[in-house]
């Protein structure tokens, strides 16, 4: 197909995330991805400021990850996980156990499903059916987890009448506030008898608004969960594997959850795979877990995930994330004074410009592309999560595009 044929058929027939058909903003045709850059069909080269929705932390077309897929493909692309096992899944499980300190691993095929599994674990373990969380969160688009996304400002209001009603505390502030600690305490104590678990995204609320909050709230939730015999679920799908400057978001608070969800960067952006891990106590309390995806433990995905985590262990990711953080702080410093901008914030390899009004997606993307950068804004957010492989000059170009886009609003 020619690029024009691809674009035309796509526009009329292919649904893209969070869009209509046809989409208001036509999709760009990509023909190659290499390092931290995407090449479009018209020859333009764009720096990827999104890491393909936060997953391609090593960049694209990495020889180590490519080879892992090729080697595994020659042996076995897939085999059912019911009654069978294989080395790629077992090696990956061992690595995840060592990284997290959580000894039981359930493989899923997407982040949303990993959270669904976590919810099932909590319900089966406790015999209770309600969850507590905080406003401003996002945990996925499937039905069980939509119910613990923000019920007012989230993207799932169309389905609210079909969702169970869970317990919500307010949005966690970035600063440490005694009144919010008291709100968490009061909320948990009032509902303790009906709660199966508390579920949060550690330190960073991702697609719900790209908000950062004080790690002391995680410490407090861990304490409350222990006091009231409630499980704590950490959704680390966006925050895991170094994005915030620590290996996991929970590490900022020095806590370990009862259940942890992982995904996105786990496979380096190569294949869809996720995992839900839990403690020995939770696993024994559950017994038979009633879930089993067809592609559970997929050998190709497990092999490339292992290669990605090996690569992460070898590379100086902490220093890389710190360098990205410093470049984001410097590059976004001027954005705070712009009329359209409400807030600017940076944590680890995450940079956010929050605007006062919803952004014009086409306009922001157009300005960014004019600066040689690919960004995908949403709501009132122009943000970036660059690959760890991004050089300081790359980050400077990304922040320049973000500031220019905010100036154009």
For this entry, give a set of tags.
single chain; 409 residues; alpha/beta; Aspartate Aminotransferase, domain 1; Aspartate Aminotransferase, domain 2; four-stranded mixed beta sheet; 16 strands; 37% helix; globular
Q: Could you please describe the fold and organization of this structure?
A:
Belongs to the class-III pyridoxal-phosphate-dependent aminotransferase family. BioA subfamily. Its EC number is 2.6.1.62. Homodimer. GO terms for molecular function: adenosylmethionine-8-amino-7-oxononanoate transaminase activity; pyridoxal phosphate binding. The model has no long low-confidence stretch (mean pLDDT 96). Helix 6 links the parallel strand 5 and strand 6 (167-169). The strands form 4 sheets. The protein has a 7-stranded mixed beta sheet, with helices on both faces. The protein is of the alpha/beta class and 409 residues long. The chain folds into 2 domains: 3-61 and 316-408, Aspartate Aminotransferase, domain 1; 76-314, Aspartate Aminotransferase, domain 2. 37% of the residues lie in helices and 17% in strands. The chain contains 13 helices and 16 strands.
